[in-house]
TrEMBL record:
Keyword Cell membrane: no
InterPro entries: HTH_AraC, TPR-like_helical_dom_sf, TPR_rpt
Record-annotated membrane-spanning stretches: 327-345
Keyword tags: DNA-binding, Membrane, Transmembrane, Transmembrane helix
Domain (HTH araC/xylS-type): residue spans on this chain: 410-514
Native organism taxonomy: Bacteria, Pseudomonadati, Bacteroidota, Flavobacteriia, Flavobacteriales
A Pfam family this chain is assigned to: HTH_18
PROSITE patterns with a match to the protein in the record: HTH_ARAC_FAMILY_2
Protein name: HTH araC/xylS-type domain-containing protein
Gene3D superfamilies named among the record's database cross-references: Homeodomain-like (1.10.10.60), Tetratricopeptide repeat domain (1.25.40.10)
Amino acid sequence: MFKSLLKIVFLFVMILFPAQEKNIFDQVYEKSISDIHKKESSQLIKRADSLYILAKMPIDMVKVLMASANAYQQLGDIKKSICYAEKANIGINHVGNPEWGVRIQVFLAQKYRLVGLYERSKKYTSEGFQRTKSIEDSIIYYQLLGELYQEMAYYESNVGNHEKAIYNLRQSLWAFEKVNDPMIFYHIANSYQLLGGIFSKQQNYELSEKHYVRADSLLKGSSFLSGWIYNGLGEIRLKQKKWAEAKLYLDKAEHVAEDFPHFDLKKAVYANINDYYEGINDSYKASLYIQKYVKVYDESNAKNPIFSRDVATTSKRMGHISIAKNIMIIVLCMILISLIIFFKVRQKQQHIKFKSIIRKQKKQNQAQDVGELFHIVDVSQMNTEYMNDIVIKKRNEPLMTSETEAKLLELLDDFEKGNLYNNKNMSLPFLAGELNTNTKYLSYVINQHKSADFKMYINRLRIHYIVDKLLRDERYRQYKISILAEECGFSSHSKFASVFKMVTNFSPSVYIKLLESGNSMENNIHFPENN
């Protein structure tokens, strides 16, 4: 009764003072995006649910949905966070408010990037750039433009285009500098922190440290961004083998990571602390941080099952079982035991073969020219009879001059360094058009120099791409097989699985399973975040 009375009073106040209604919703949103603790996030979700029922204006409904999305983000539940943001994105399409439209698209781009769906993240970033053109307020325009450049920098960095990432970050700093707001310093610090990470990957440690220190000087108060900065500085010291200084930075990073429910930060920090203890030969403490890493990894997967592979579940029914069923179960158990014994030797051989593939793939990742991968080692270990057929088809007489052939080979090498081969529309005429040549020349060069026809050449590139992702990024091992197939341009789950097995000698599910079990056997393959 008392709660009903409170709702009536609240509605009465909102009707009499419509200007205050806007302030209430704005305050909910602003609070949701601040650095709040887990307890406050839970309270905000309850409050936002109540306000959504009371909201009448479409824009207010959108704001409350985004308040919930931000709160679930703080709790580490990316699945629900994306769900609420997607609802808000649908709602904003019916509201003429480009500012909130861009805010939502920046948010979705960030979340999809965090779960490794980079192309979807890029899609929202690109749409955000288009919507900014309708924003009239110059301060808001430059702030959101800066955030979009940041997201584009994340994308370019994740696909290995570091120079483009640096360009986008500098564009973000240019945009942020036009915003006269104390809160903008956090975004500026984020850009400097990202620059520090990119220069660290390029082994330019002096410039990397300079940007990390600049980012730290802009932050006021504790923030999870501080954790990334200290972790980055600690990682530099690890690479320089300055153990004492590395420990100081990593201790600070761990302290920040423990205060915020950000799984990626925790995993990155625990991975570097593990490397620190391995570096000083303290195996016991190193193992403790491996356990911490695995615990956070499991918690992250439990929070976000929508991006994990489907796992078939069966309900265990306890009841009265007939004698016939008991006998059948016993017989089946005996058969299973026999099969396990029979395939034991074969399983060991499979693991040995798998380890060999892993070692070869790691050598491939160190190659400077991606085009040489097909000559250094072939992960596919293709059927020799097929290879012999391809060799037989090679022509004795060249169709073109040596200069044209060399130029086309150079263009193919550049093509292999990108990921255009993942395009679903990829075909011989399509690629010939991209390389400004004809299909006859292109087919000839691929057959002569890549030891494959066009179809196998493209499929082999795609499988190399996805195998590299599975090796380097644990998140890819959690995706559905259909998502992996789509990521590298295959038209169907079954086609991808068939080609994957032909190239690697394993089905995708078996390969991922062996890769997961291999993590416990291979000391050099345990923390992809360190790569």
